[in-house]
Amino acid sequence: MYAHPERARLTSAKERVLNQLLRRLVVLQPGEAPALLASFATLLCMFASYTILRPVRDALGITSGLDKIPLLFWAVFVVMLLLQPVYGWLTSRFPRTVFLPWVYAFFAANLVAFYVWFRLESDHTWIARTYFVWVSVFNLFVVATFWSLMADVFTREQAGRLFGFIWAGASTGGLIGPAIDNRLAVPVGAINLLPISAALLLLSLVFMTQVIRWQRRQSAPQTSGAPAAAHAEAALGGGVWAAFTQVVRSPYLLGIAAFVLLMTWVSTFLYLEQQAFVARVLHSADERASFFGGIDFWVQAASLAIQLLLFGRLFKWVGLRVVLASVPVIMTFGYALFALAPRFMLLVVVYAVRRVGDYALTRPCRDALFTVVSREEKYKAKSLIDTFVYRGGDALSGSLYRQLTHELGAGPAAIGWLGAAISALWTVLALALGRAQERSAGGAAAAPARAATAR
User: Fold this and answer.
1) Which residues contact 301 (CB under 8 A, 6 or more apart)?
2) What DSSP string runs through 154-213?
3) Percent helix, strand and coil across the chain, each rounded to 5?
4) Residue 168 has pLDDT above 80, yes or no
5) What per-residue confidence (pLDDT) applies to 336?
6) Confidence label for 455 from pLDDT (cuts 50, 70 and 90)
7) Residue 196: which of 210, 208, 184, 186 has the closest Cα?
8) Which domains, from first to last, does the chain contain?
């Protein structure tokens, strides 16, 4: 009889300590800690799973042939196009408590299948190409579905306070995955890391169910809460191609799509330049996986520091518009610097800075853009932009890069100046989107006040 109150007292004390620690890192309101920590843990495990796979993908991408990488981008784009109606059908017919677990379980089963395939075949050329395409699809669908859930669970005001901390889960997981690659890729073989990745992905699914249960409790009926809870758990309805219609009809969503398109162009030019340099220096897939894992580790470490210590405060001080435009501005100067001094180490640094800025600043802000759209658009249009448009940008920029370098003989300096021009255009669009999001949020906040006045 005595032990139960004592355990409850200890549990309560631990919760108070945890809440105090969280409040030092993020502006936290009562009752938000369970969802915040479960979201953080979901992204940590999911991103650890993915970042084990990414250095292996980059290493095998070189194995499959540098000249084939732009073609692989087009293959990813085609796969995305084919999968969009499937994803649209899932979201239209099933509640998220059904389709989100199935998405994660499907990709975990794929990882086991790839591991078996690699072990059975001696020639890995076509397996490497298939794996390169699959990992690109895996990354975008798994991450996109997670952030669709986040945009649905949290309000715009909560997004500004909490998304930076949640994204720190990605960087924390991003430290674990590359560290595993860097330490184990050479001694045990990169292929043998795939089952570890599958286990982490399934663990992330366990934490995701906690997030869903938290929102269900928040929507639980007091008086009129039952319809809200039922709405949150219902299938989205609509057609399998609804996402395309949503984006085409909305200038705001078209602007986000253009933002993502320019972002991929800025990234792909640097990525392909880096791949070309690495191919000349490192000759085995395991060595390349270890090299990329080392870079990924430091990128994620820097991203984590910014997400935990700076993003929430920076968002509060200067607002979404400035934070969203900060990375495009940095990349404008970074590309110009590379154009003036096209050296390998400078390339590695500029690309690493872009990735740090993407994880720590751009992605949380980009996801916050979707907090002012409808619930159906958060799942369908957002997934379309984060997958189909993203990989379409990769394919187009990869083909342009190949045309410029192989057909027209453009050197690194020319690529640098073109990248600077695209980054400048990206900056202008970021400022416009930030302004549009703030206006939409202001209008939504004013509507209840007008309704109350009318009553």
Assistant:
1) 171, 175
2) S-HHHHHHHHHHHHHHHHHHHHHHHHHHHHHHHHH-GGGGHHHHHHHHHHHHHHHHHHHH
3) 90, 0, 10
4) no
5) 94
6) very low
7) 184
8) 32-445 (1.20.1250.20)
Higher pLDDT, 145 or 10: 145
Q: What is the pTM of this model?
A: 0.64
pLDDT tens per residue across span 223-278: 444 444 444 555 555 554 677 788 888 999 999 999 999 999 998 888 888 877 77
3-state secondary structure the chain: CCHHHHHHHHHHHHHHHHHHHHHHHCCCCCCCHHHHHHHHHHHHHHHHHHHHHHHHHHHHHHHCCHHHHHHHHHHHHHHHHHHHHHHHHHHHHCCHHHHHHHHHHHHHHHHHHHHHHHHHCCCCHHHHHHHHHHHHHHHHHHHHHHHHHHHHHCCHHHHHHHHHHHHHHHHHHHHHHHHHHHHHHHHHCHHHHHHHHHHHHHHHHHHHHHHHHHHHHHCCCCCCHHHHHHHHHCCCCCCCCHHHHHHHHCHHHHHHHHHHHHHHHHHHHHHHHHHHHHHHHCCCHHHHHHHHHHHHHHHHHHHHHHHHHHHHHHHHHHHHHHHHHHHHHHHHHHHHHHHHCCCHHHHHHHHHHHHHHHHHHHHHHHHHHHHHCCHHHHHHHHHHHHHHHHHHHHHHHHHHHHHHHHHCCCCHHHHHHHHHHHHHHHHHHHHHHHHHHHHHHHHHHHHHHHHHHHC
Identify the weakest region by mean pLDDT among 139-143, 200-204, 401-405.
139-143
Say how many CA atoms lie within 13 Å of 289 toward its Cβ. Answer: 28
Looking at the predicted structure, is the pLDDT value of residue 80 above 70?
yes
Say which residues have a Cβ less than 8 Å from residue 418's Cβ, sequence separation at least 6: 269, 404
Nearest to 155 by CA among 144, 167, 163: 163
Evaluate whether 237 touches 376 at the Cβ level (below 8 Å): yes
Q: What is the pLDDT, as a whole number, of residue 444? A: 53
Find the mean pLDDT for residues 356-364: 84
Q: Which has more pLDDT, 109 or 395?
A: 109
